[in-house]
Write a structure and sequence with these properties.
Elements lengths: L26 E5 L11 H9 L2 E4 L2 H10 L8 E4 L6 H12 L3 E5 L12 H9 L4 E4 L4 H9 L6 E5 L5 H12 L4 E6 L4 H12 L4 E6 L7 E6 H7 L9 E5 L9 H14 L2 H12 L3 H12 L1
Parallel strand pairs: 1-4, 1-5, 2-3, 2-4, 6-7
Antiparallel strand pairs: 7-10, 8-9, 8-10
Keywords: Cytoplasm, Methyltransferase, rRNA processing, S-adenosyl-L-methionine, Transferase
Function: Catalyzes the 2'-O-methylation of the ribose of cytidine 1402 (C1402) in 16S rRNA.
Catalytic activity: cytidine(1402) in 16S rRNA + S-adenosyl-L-methionine = 2'-O-methylcytidine(1402) in 16S rRNA + S-adenosyl-L-homocysteine + H(+)
């Protein structure tokens, strides 16, 4: 195999330790698959793919190709489609296989199932029935981007894909902008320019960020700088490939106590004290406990 990206998006160089057929207990197995390099898959994930009775894949073609790269034969096993548009009946059939003593491996097209990928409803229904659910962790674009971004990683929020429409997107970004955590967002490469423009306006031009593109693939690139610098660096037509945006936590700013008091009093008219304190603490980047104590004083 070469190291070139094939039509399924994998960096196709594979080989190495072969998968083993192992005895799997009945259950639903969430298997993380490579986001680029096919060699990023774990040995345990390969064993599960080689052994599960049924493989439920977001894209069956991609799943079959990944198995071929690693020498895993289907051996007549079922490889069925399970994606965002799958029905309640599709979920019921998969859980029925588990209920009858089978093992079902759930795989996304790339990355970790449920992280901006299908699987939540399937897991929710399995848990509701008391069926075993097991994770085989591995590749995740969100964690890979956070790792290479150079931004604080001790506290972060995965915010998924922001809305594509302008007004709705700005509303969501305004809610996210003041959260005192590093933010990880997915975005279409064609819309990243517009997202950056909105963030410059909402979060501030000087806020640090990193665009992580084509992670683990041949043309992997990380562009670091302020939001203003990134907005300038991205062409009007956008970028190519998969994109993750990592945004630094809000810049510390002097707090105007009168502004805080006014905002908290307004919130107390709308919300219970605990909820009001939480809302204003998030807005100003302060501790919830301190804001709750302030609420007690203002109400007293």
């Amino acid at each position: 195999m070469t190291d070139e990206t094939d039509q399924t998006g994998f960096e196709a160089s594979a080989g190495g330790t072969p998968a083993r057929q192992v005895a799997l207990a009945p259950g639903l197995y969430l298997v993380a698959t490579p986001i680029g390099s096919a060699r990023d898959i774990t040995l345990r994930a390969l064993d599960i793919l080689a052994s599960a009775d049924t493989i439920a894949a977001e894209d069956t073609r991609t799943a079959r190709h990944l198995m071929e790269l690693h020498g895993i034969k289907a051996r007549g096993r079922r490889i069925v489609a399970y994606h965002d548009h799958s029905s309640e009946g599709d979920r019921a059939r998969l859980l029925g296989l588990v209920r009858d003593g089978g093992s079902v491996a759930c795989v996304s097209e790339a990355g970790t199932p449920l992280v901006a990928d299908p699987g939540y409803r399937l897991v929710k229904d399995a848990v509701a029935e008391g069926l075993p659910v097991t994770a085989a962790p591995g590749p995740s674009a969100a964690l890979a981007a956070l790792s290479v971004s150079g931004l604080p990683s001790d506290r972060f929020l995965f915010a998924g894909f922001p809305p594509s429409k302008g007004a709705e997107r700005r509303k969501v970004l305004e809610e996210l902008a003041n959260i005192p955590s590093t933010l990880v967002l997915y975005e279409s490469p064609r819309r990243i320019k517009g997202l950056l423009a909105d963030l410059v306006d909402i979060a501030g031009a000087d806020r640090k960020a990193a665009i992580c593109r084509e992670l683990t693939k041949r043309f992997e690139e990380v562009i670091r700088g302020t939001l203003a610098e990134l907005a300038e660096a991205v062409p009007d037509k956008g970028l190519r490939g998969e994109v993750v945006l990592v945004l630094d936590r809000p810049l510390a700013r002097p707090i105007d106590q009168e502004e805080v008091d006014a905002a908290l009093l307004d919130a107390l008219e709308r919300l219970p004290m605990k909820a009001a304190a939480s809302e204003i603490a998030m807005r100003f980047g302060t501790a919830k406990r301190d804001m709750y104590q302030l609420a007690l004083r203002l109400k007293g």
